[in-house]
């Protein structure tokens, strides 16, 4: 896992009262701490985040594994004390290898279900981009939202092009996004998104002004690309060509 150079301030927000979805099987557990986690939506979401990020890190050393085991012992010593467990998770998430101290609740619209729901977004900040995970808070067994990502290669020429037609792209499914997330809750990007949309602005590190902004719609619990703005021209000018997805 890349180590961030900048860590944002922690924003702890209230969670709705919902069914829990921890990273472990809640059936048949006898551990007091795990029972409390399974019965508390906030703790379950924190546990799911920690479990996902731990699984994502392919550079775990023996020391990190021992540190995680020591933390589990400390966490379990909280028993059923919710505040103790919450503090234990927040402290562990801020440490190696997670370095995660930013949480935010955003309201998103699902174009399939025609409903607004609350989602939890977590971000780790790097010099050029941010790595963001978005989680559903409705108690589903796999709460992390997937993204269908278009893969823009350097062979895609946008110099002098306003609209990209008949472009053949590869797509990959990802459970995180590298780039600056913009939703109606945030509004810090150069362009405002439409209701129900989320955009991701990605700076292509080491390539001058080359960058892209993909606009996604949440459809049946999955982010699908709707359109994109792509600057794939090394001319030191911020000029985007528009691409629409079926």
Explain how this protein is built.
The chain has 246 residues and is an alpha+beta fold. The protein has two domains: 32-101; 104-244, no CATH class. It is built from four helices and eleven strands. It has helices spanning 32-38, 41-56, 62-76, 82-93; strands spanning 103-110, 115-125, 130-136, 146-151, 170-174, 177-178, 180-182, 197-203, 211-219, 222-231, 241-244. The strands form two sheets. Strands 4, 5, 7, 8, 9, 10 and 11 form a seven-stranded mixed β-sheet that branches. It has a four-stranded antiparallel β-sheet with strand order 1-2-3-6, with no helix packed on it. A hairpin with a 4-residue loop joins strand 1 (103-110) and strand 2 (115-125). Helix 2 runs parallel beside helix 4 (82-93) and helix 3 packs antiparallel against helix 4 (82-93). The radius of gyration is 20 Å and the shape is elongated. The two termini are 34 Å apart. The model is unreliable at 1-20 (pLDDT under 50).
Which features characterize this protein?
7-stranded mixed sheet; 11 strands; single chain; 29% strand; 246 residues; 4-stranded antiparallel sheet; 2 domains; 4 helices; alpha+beta
Q: Would you summarize the structure shown here?
A:
With 246 residues, the protein is α+β, with helices and mostly antiparallel strands. The protein has two domains: 32-101; 104-244, no CATH class.
Structural class: alpha+beta
As an assembly, this protein is single chain
Q: Tell me, briefly, the overall form.
A: elongated
Sheet-strand content, in percent, reads 25-35%
Helix content: 10-25%
Rg, alpha carbons: 20 Å
Order of helices and strands: HHHHEEEEEEEEEEE
Mean pLDDT: 82
Question: How many domain regions?
Answer: 2
Distance between the termini: 34 Å
Which residues sit in consecutive blocks of at least 5 with pLDDT less than 50?
1-20
Could you describe the largest sheet, including whether it forms a barrel? 7 strands, mixed
Number of strands: 11
Number of helices: 4
């Amino acid at each position: 896992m890349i180590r961030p150079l900048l860590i944002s301030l922690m924003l702890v927000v209230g969670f709705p009262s919902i069914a829990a979805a921890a990273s472990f099987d809640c059936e048949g557990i006898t551990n007091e701490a795990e029972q409390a986690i399974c019965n508390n939506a906030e703790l379950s979401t924190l546990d799911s985040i920690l479990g996902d990020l731990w699984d994502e890190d392919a550079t775990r050393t023996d020391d990190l594994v021992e540190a995680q085991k020591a933390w589990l012992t400390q966490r379990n010593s909280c028993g059923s004390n919710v505040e103790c467990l919450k503090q234990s998770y927040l402290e562990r998430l801020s440490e190696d290898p997670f370095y995660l101290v930013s949480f935010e609740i955003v309201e998103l619209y699902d174009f399939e279900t025609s409903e607004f729901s609350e989602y939890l977004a977590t971000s780790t900040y790097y010099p050029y981009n941010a790595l963001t995970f978005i989680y559903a808070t409705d108690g589903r067994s796999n709460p992390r939202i997937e993204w269908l990502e278009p893969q823009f290669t350097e062979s895609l020429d946008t110099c002098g092009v306003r609209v990209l037609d008949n472009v053949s792209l590869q797509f990959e499914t990802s459970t995180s996004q590298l780039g600056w997330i913009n939703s109606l809750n945030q509004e810090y990007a150069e362009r405002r998104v439409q209701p129900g949309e989320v955009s991701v602005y990605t700076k292509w590190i080491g390539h001058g002004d080359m960058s892209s902004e993909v606009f996604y719609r949440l459809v049946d619990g999955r982010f699908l690309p709707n359109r994109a703005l792509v600057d794939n021209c090394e001319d030191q000018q911020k000029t985007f060509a528009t691409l629409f997805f079926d």
